[in-house]
Amino acid sequence: MELTSTEENYLKAIYHLSDGGKKSVSTNDIAAEMKTKAASVSDMLRKLGEKEVIEYRKYYGLQITESGKRFALQTIRKHRLWEVFLVEKLNFAWDEVHEVAEQLEHIHSPLLVQRLDAYLNYPKFDPHGDPIPDEFGDVRARPRVQLNEMDVDQTGQIVAVKDSSAAFLRYLDKVGAYIGARIKVLDKVEFDGSLEILVDQKKTLFMSKDVSCNILVLQS
Amino acid sequence: MELTSTEENYLKAIYHLSDGGKKSVSTNDIAAEMKTKAASVSDMLRKLGEKEVIEYRKYYGLQITESGKRFALQTIRKHRLWEVFLVEKLNFAWDEVHEVAEQLEHIHSPLLVQRLDAYLNYPKFDPHGDPIPDEFGDVRARPRVQLNEMDVDQTGQIVAVKDSSAAFLRYLDKVGAYIGARIKVLDKVEFDGSLEILVDQKKTLFMSKDVSCNILVLQS
DNA sequence: AAATATATTTAGCTATATCTAAATTAATTT
DNA sequence: AAATTAATTTAGATATAGCTAAATATATTT
């Protein structure tokens, strides 16, 4: 069975919102995420239920099925592999890749995915630090904490961001807080939760809590 | 203005069937090429007319406009660049690329096309020997003849094929008549038009007229 | 427990892209 | 020039994906 691009996008949203099937998701949540209306979501849920990628009981809620998880992970895998390709091979900035990867992820060709993966040397993480599921859907997540939860003097490496809007990514690029940067918390202001950070042992940086809670760090 | 994938496909078909706007094309020709019905084509022609990529007078015929040519060439450019990518970077065989390129050509991102072009080192021809239009739509075609039109003792290089069905391409691969192969006509049988060919100065090959008239050669 | 508020679904509409069958126009025969 | 044939278009369906407005079910107050 094949899914349309729209169905793939809904399923991906459901997968993310439910945190991989753990949490429950409401029709309204999906509508907000997909920037559409609840009525349209209801229609789509019925269809996804018929295709058995979710289990759907109206007014009750939904549950992503094993089959649905495989489809979602396959789409996520393709999205992230293309992001690696765009950044590493075509020199895209990491804040320019999302929109294009959003289109490329819907290309249907198992051979293409397999060859792209090999060409990129089987990457485990995308340019935002998010893990790339392997062909069986297995994910090796790195344990990571939000930057704002770290204490003074603790160190680590930026491995991912929560907000991947172009505006946020541009800001990070500007201040030099890229994925892979080694950081140390120099000071923490109790009043507003803002931080003073040392980046790559040379540059100090002041950061609001709004920013720091969107940065994920692998502690060391 | 943006075209849908379907509109892009129709326009590409019209461009090819009209030989770049030179010949006239009928509704039925388009229907055959697009594997659809004449009624659907009529609908689409009206729409393409409204978008001013063709000039359409019903029952009379159509004419591709300058704007339409630009759109068609842009799609052809993307298709052929992706084919180069698939063959050169992802090790696809030249008979495996078409279907995937058919999907990839509809990705909308001027930056992507520009970067891909640079990454591939501004190729002028695709793996089947067809010219790749530049970003302004300019094409540098190579003068070429059908293999069956060559005389005994003439030499040249295979630069393109007319029939690019998977079956034909597989056959060529098997007998070693790849794009770029240097050939010499050793003998020509008047009776059935079949040929004896020397490939790369070592391998001789017998070839029916049906095959040879689908192979294009740059004479030397 | 009834009333109110919120969430969700259904009904009915729009637009795209397809189809078949009928109608119309153009081209060809006789 | 009339009749026939072929090509093309229109009319009226279907399916997807979206919308608004109305209806219905669930949740929360009072």
From TrEMBL, chains A, B:
<dbReference type="Pfam" id="PF04023">
    <property type="entry name" value="FeoA"/>
</dbReference>
<dbReference type="Pfam" id="PF01325">
    <property type="entry name" value="Fe_dep_repress"/>
</dbReference>
<dbReference type="GO" id="GO:0003700">
    <property type="term" value="F:DNA-binding transcription factor activity"/>
</dbReference>
<keyword id="KW-0678">Repressor</keyword>
<keyword id="KW-0010">Activator</keyword>
<dbReference type="InterPro" id="IPR038157">
    <property type="entry name" value="FeoA_core_dom"/>
</dbReference>
<keyword id="KW-0804">Transcription</keyword>
<dbReference type="GO" id="GO:0046983">
    <property type="term" value="F:protein dimerization activity"/>
</dbReference>
<dbReference type="InterPro" id="IPR001367">
    <property type="entry name" value="Fe_dep_repressor"/>
</dbReference>
<dbReference type="Pfam" id="PF02742">
    <property type="entry name" value="Fe_dep_repr_C"/>
</dbReference>
<feature type="domain" description="HTH dtxR-type">
    <location>
        <begin position="3"/>
        <end position="65"/>
    </location>
</feature>
<protein>
    <recommendedName>
        <fullName>Transcriptional regulator MntR</fullName>
    </recommendedName>
</protein>
<dbReference type="InterPro" id="IPR022689">
    <property type="entry name" value="Iron_dep_repressor"/>
</dbReference>
<comment type="similarity">
    <text>Belongs to the DtxR/MntR family.</text>
</comment>
<dbReference type="InterPro" id="IPR036390">
    <property type="entry name" value="WH_DNA-bd_sf"/>
</dbReference>
<dbReference type="InterPro" id="IPR022687">
    <property type="entry name" value="HTH_DTXR"/>
</dbReference>
<dbReference type="InterPro" id="IPR036421">
    <property type="entry name" value="Fe_dep_repressor_sf"/>
</dbReference>
<dbReference type="GO" id="GO:0046914">
    <property type="term" value="F:transition metal ion binding"/>
</dbReference>
<dbReference type="InterPro" id="IPR007167">
    <property type="entry name" value="Fe-transptr_FeoA-like"/>
</dbReference>
<keyword id="KW-0963">Cytoplasm</keyword>
<dbReference type="GO" id="GO:0003677">
    <property type="term" value="F:DNA binding"/>
</dbReference>
<dbReference type="GO" id="GO:0005737">
    <property type="term" value="C:cytoplasm"/>
</dbReference>
<comment type="function">
    <text>In the presence of manganese, represses expression of mntH and mntS. Up-regulates expression of mntP.</text>
</comment>
<keyword id="KW-0238">DNA-binding</keyword>
<dbReference type="InterPro" id="IPR036388">
    <property type="entry name" value="WH-like_DNA-bd_sf"/>
</dbReference>
<keyword id="KW-0805">Transcription regulation</keyword>
<dbReference type="InterPro" id="IPR050536">
    <property type="entry name" value="DtxR_MntR_Metal-Reg"/>
</dbReference>
<comment type="subunit">
    <text>Homodimer.</text>
</comment>
<keyword id="KW-0464">Manganese</keyword>
